[in-house]
């Protein structure tokens, strides 16, 4: 049975000598694969082992490269990755909001990696996934993971009578994106809170409801701008679909993967560059 979340008895910073020990503990069950999971159930854990040149690790945030497309002998990326198997399992966990156990190997090039063996880094949540051309020129699937608990007083520590040694901690600077709510509000009001895909405006006791969806996502590594031309007015269903590759928008504003045409109005000019970026990075 696949276990999502913490494994009782193993704190952040726990060291292991081998993959076999990790598997026996239940932290990362497979002995070879870097992703533990299935496309139907989702992924429960990953190992950062230095195998992919596109990985990025700043401690609290990790940009993880999916699996596949590497030469078995040289380890070089020689083909595009596909959204299947372990890659699809990670996408499933993003949709479901499942936590991911992360372990770093001494082979992983990061100041957060152990000198020898493996170190369990705790729980992370997948905030986004997309495809892009990697350093080798082939498409890879990438996943942005954020540390699940930033508060040192985690729920398990508060509810347990067991005393554990304090895990190692590193000082880090966290940058947060401040969104311009005025621009999002303007776009929704221009469309009378009607979804640009289905035309539905959701009534609530406090008025109509819609969501502002950024076409090119804000923040690293996408760094989309917080401007009206990068914002869509969508209902919650189509917002989730759009953010996770459920549909894309063609240059003529017809919809891809679902039927229909994006609803537009004269004062809302959607920039073509952002639509093309979304297609390139989220279409599988």
Explain this structure.
Strands 1, 2, 3, 4, 5, 6, 7 and 8 form an eight-stranded mixed β-sheet that branches. A two-stranded antiparallel sheet has the order 9-10. A two-stranded antiparallel ribbon has the order 11-12. Mean pLDDT is 88; it is low at 150-178. With 284 residues, it is of the alpha+beta class. It is built from six helices and 14 strands. The two termini are 30 Å apart. Helix content is 19%, strand content 25%.
Kindly summarize this structure in a few lines.
The protein has six helices and 14 strands.
Sketch the topology as an H/E string, one letter per element: EHEEEEHEEEHHEEEEHEEH
Mean of residue pLDDT values: 88
Count of helical segments? 6
Separation, N- and C-terminal Cα atoms? 30 Å
Amount of beta strand: 15-25%
**Rg, Å, rounded:** 21 Å
Oligomerization state: single chain
Quick one: how many beta strands? 14
Shape: elongated
| Structural class label | alpha+beta
Uncertain residue segments: 150-178
The helix content, as a percent range, equals: 10-25%
Largest sheet: 8 strands, mixed
């Amino acid at each position: 049975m696949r276990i999502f979340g913490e494994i009782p008895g193993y704190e952040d910073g726990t060291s292991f000598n081998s993959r076999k020990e990790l598997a026996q503990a239940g932290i990362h069950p497979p002995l070879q694969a870097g992703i533990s999971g299935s496309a139907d159930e989702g992924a429960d854990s990953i190992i950062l082992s230095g195998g992919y040149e596109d990985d990025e690790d700043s401690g609290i945030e990790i940009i993880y490269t999916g699996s596949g497309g590497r030469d078995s002998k040289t380890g070089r990326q020689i083909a595009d990755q596909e959204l299947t198997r372990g890659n699809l399992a990670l996408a499933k966990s993003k949709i479901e909001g499942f936590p991911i156990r992360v372990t770093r190997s001494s082979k992983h090039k990061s100041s957060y990696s152990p000198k020898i063996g493996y170190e369990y880094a705790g729980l992370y949540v997948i905030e986004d996934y997309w495809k892009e051309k990697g350093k080798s020129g082939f498409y890879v699937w990438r996943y942005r993971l954020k540390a699940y608990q930033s508060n040192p007083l985690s729920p398990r520590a508060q509810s347990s009578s067991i005393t554990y040694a304090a895990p190692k901690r590193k000082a880090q600077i966290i940058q947060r994106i401040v969104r311009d709510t005025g621009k999002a509000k303007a776009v929704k009001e221009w469309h009378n809170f009607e979804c640009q895909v289905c035309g539905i405006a959701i009534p609530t006791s406090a008025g109509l409801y819609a969501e502002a969806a950024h076409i090119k996502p804000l923040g690293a590594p996408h760094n989309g701008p917080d401007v009206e031309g990068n914002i869509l007015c969508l209902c919650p269903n189509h917002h989730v679909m759009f953010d996770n590759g459920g549909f894309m928008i063609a240059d003529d504003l017809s919809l891809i993967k679902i039927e229909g045409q994006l609803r537009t109005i004269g004062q809302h000019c959607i920039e073509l560059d952002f639509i093309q970026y979304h297609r390139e990075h989220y279409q599988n």
